[in-house]
Design brief:
By secondary structure, this protein is mainly α. The chain has 17 helices and five strands. InterPro entries: AA/rel_permease1, APC_superfamily.
Length: 507
C-alpha cells in the first residue's frame, strides 16, 4: 500500500454509528437478490412481451438468458470475493480500472437501483387498479397504491437492515411459492396440452433473426438485480463467501422459476395462439381466471409481494452506494449519516424515497403508470448495461494486476469478454432503431447523463483525487488475509484496502 493512500485512511469511527456489521446471514442476502429480481412481477410483465417475439419458445429463451447472465454472475462473484464493500460496483471498477471509471460506473448506477422502486411500483399499481375494479367493483387510484407501497418500503428500510431483510425474505419466499403453485395449477388445468415440447424448441426464424435477438435481450435484462446483495457486504456475515454464492444461487433459482412459469403460460394460453398474448390486457390474470374464480386474488397478492420485495431490495442497495460515496466525500457527507439506533444510512434512505415519490408521481401523471414504467425502464436498462459491462472488464484488470497468481484465462479473461459482448448486444437492440417519442427523450437524457458523468469524473480526479481514492477503499472487519489488506494505523479503525495511484490500482 502506498504512503499516499495510507495518509488518506479514514479516521477511526469507533465513537460514531456505523452500519451493523454481520447483521445478515446467507438466507437473507440470497432473498435480497431473489426479491430484487422479482419472481412474480418480472415474468408477469415481461413474459407476454417475450412470447410476442418468439411465441412458444419463450421458456427456452429464458433458460438461454439465464446461462448468459450467469457469465456476468461469475464476474461479480470473482469481484465480491476480493472486494466486499457497500460501494458495490464503484469499488469493483475502481480497483480493476481506476477510480475515474469507478465514478462513471456509480454515476450510471444512479439510473438503476435508486429508481427501482419507481419502476416496480408504477407498473404494479397500473396493473392492480383495473384488476381490483374489475373483480371487486372498487376503484383505487394508482397513485394511492404507489404512495402506500413507497411508505411501507421507506419504513422498513429506515428502521433497520435486519427488519427489511427479514421482510424481503418472507416476501421472496411467498411470491416464489405462489408462482410455482400457479404454474402447476395452470398446467393441471390445461390437461394433455401440458406435455407439449414446443416451448423447448428453437423459435421460428422465417421472419428473420431480429425477433429472436430482441427476445433474448429482453430476457437477459429480466435478470437485472441478481447482484443487488453486493452493497450489503459490510452488513453481511462472511461476505467473501456469502455474496458470491448469493449471486449465482439467486440467478439459477429465479431463472428456473421463470422458465416453469413461462412454460405454463405457453401451454395455458395455447401453443398456437401464444403469439397474440402480448396484445392482451393483463394476460396472467386471464390465466388465473381459467384456474379458479378466486385465483386472481392469489396472483395479485404475489404481484404485490413481488413489487414490495423488489422495491425494498433496490432501496437498500441504492442507499448504501450513496452512503459509501458520501462517506468518502465525493457526494455530500450528509449522505453518510447513520441513524444512531437503527444503524441505517438514514439521510440516503430519505433522499432515495423523496426521489422515488417525485419521479413516480411525475411520470405517472404525465404518461400514466404503464407508460411511466416503460420510460423509467429504459433508464434502468441502459444504466445497468453500462454498470455490468464495466464491472465485467474490471475483473480482467483486478486479477491481472493484483492477483496474477490466481489469474485464470477462462474465468478472468474469456468469461468477462463474452459476458460484456452479450450486454453490448442488449445495448444495441435497446437503442436501435431509435425509439419514438417519448422514449427517444429518455434515451437523450440517459446519453447526456453519462457524458456529464465522464466530465465530472475528470474534474474530480483533478480537484478531489483523495476523496475518489478513499471511496474505493474497503472498510470492513474481516480476518481473512487475501493479500490486499493491511491494518489501519489505529487499532480502533477498520481495516482498509486499495490504493490507486495515477488512476490505476496498485498493490
Amino acid at each position: 500500500m502506498s504512503d499516499d493512500m495510507t495518509s488518506h485512511a479514514p479516521p477511526p469511527q469507533s465513537s460514531s454509528p456505523a452500519l451493523r456489521s454481520g447483521a445478515l446471514g446467507q438466507q437473507e442476502v440470497v432473498f435480497q437478490a431473489i426479491s430484487h429480481l422479482g419472481p412474480a412481477v418480472g415474468i408477469i410483465i415481461i413474459g407476454p412481451v417475450l412470447a410476442g417475439f418468439v411465441g412458444a419458445s419463450t421458456p427456452l429463451i429464458v433458460l438461454l438468458a439465464m446461462v448468459a447472465v450467469l457469465l456476468t454472475g461469475l464476474c461479480v462473484a470473482s469481484l465480491a470475493r476480493k472486494l466486499p464493500s457497500s460501494g458495490g460496483y464503484y469499488t469493483y471498477v475502481s480497483h480493476g480500472l481506476g477510480e475515474r471509471a469507478g465514478f462513471v460506473t456509480a454515476w450510471a448506477y444512479f439510473l438503476y437501483d435508486p429508481l427501482l422502486p419507481t419502476l416496480v411500483l408504477l407498473v404494479t399499481s397500473g396493473i392492480l387498479t383495473p384488476v381490483i375494479e374489475a373483480n371487486l367493483g372498487v376503484h383505487i387510484p394508482w397513485w394511492l397504491i404507489a404512495l402506500v407501497l413507497l411508505a411501507v418500503v421507506f419504513t422498513a428500510t429506515y428502521r433497520g437492515v435486519k427488519i427489511s431483510a427479514r421482510l424481503t425474505l418472507v416476501l421472496g419466499v411467498v411470491e416464489s411459492v405462489i408462482m410455482v403453485v400457479f404454474a402447476v395449477a395452470v398446467l393441471i388445468r390445461s390437461g394433455g396440452r401440458s406435455l407439449s415440447l414446443a416451448p423447448l424448441e428453437f423459435p421460428d426464424t422465417s421472419a428473420g433473426l431480429q425477433p429472436v435477438f430482441l427476445a433474448f435481450v429482453f430476457a437477459v435484462l429480466l435478470f437485472t438485480g441478481f447482484e443487488s446483495a453486493a452493497p450489503l457486504a459490510e452488513e453481511t456475515a462472511d461476505p467473501r463467501r456469502a455474496i458470491p454464492r448469493t449471486v449465482l444461487w439467486s440467478t439459477i433459482v429465479v431463472g428456473l422459476i421463470w422458465a416453469l412459469v413461462a412454460y405454463a403460460m405457453v401451454v395455458g394460453w395455447g401453443v398456437e395462439k401464444i403469439g397474440g398474448i402480448a396484445s392482451a390486457d393483463n394476460p396472467f390474470f386471464t390465466l388465473a381466471d381459467g384456474v379458479a374464480g378466486w385465483a386472481w386474488l392469489l396472483l395479485a397478492f404475489a404481484l404485490l409481494n413481488s413489487a414490495l420485495g423488489a422495491a425494498l431490495a433496490g432501496q437498500n442497495a441504492g442507499a448504501r452506494v450513496m452512503y459509501a460515496l458520501g462517506r468518502s466525500g465525493i457526494l455530500p457527507r450528509a449522505l453518510a449519516r447513520i441513524h444512531p439506533a437503527h444503524r441505517t444510512p438514514s439521510t440516503a434512505l430519505v433522499l432515495t424515497t423523496l426521489l422515488n415519490v417525485a419521479v413516480c408521481l411525475g411520470l405517472g401523471t404525465w404518461l400514466g403508470p404503464i407508460g411511466g414504467f416503460t420510460f423509467i425502464g429504459l433508464f434502468i436498462t441502459l444504466g445497468v448495461i453500462v454498470v455490468y459491462s464495466l464491472g465485467n472488464i474490471a475483473v480482467i484488470g483486478l486479477y491481472w494486476r493484483r492477483h496474477r497468481a490466481e489469474f485464470n484465462p477462462l474465468r478472468h479473461g474469456v468469461v468477462p469478454v463474452a459476458a460484456t459482448a452479450i450486454l453490448l448486444a442488449g445495448l444495441y437492440y435497446s437503442v436501435w432503431p431509435l425509439p419514438e417519442w417519448p422514449l427517444n427523450l429518455a434515451l437523450g437524457i440517459v446519453a447526456s447523463w453519462l457524458v456529464i458523468g465522464v466530465i465530472v469524473s475528470a474534474l474530480l480526479w483533478r480537484t478531489r483525487r483523495a476523496e475518489l481514492m478513499d471511496a474505493a477503499r474497503l472498510t470492513f472487519e474481516d480476518a481473512e488475509d487475501t493479500g490486499d489488506e493491511e491494518p489501519a494505523r489505529s487499532p480502533a479503525a477498520a481495516r482498509v484496502t486499495g490504493p490507486v495511484a495515477g488512476g490505476e490500482v496498485t498493490g
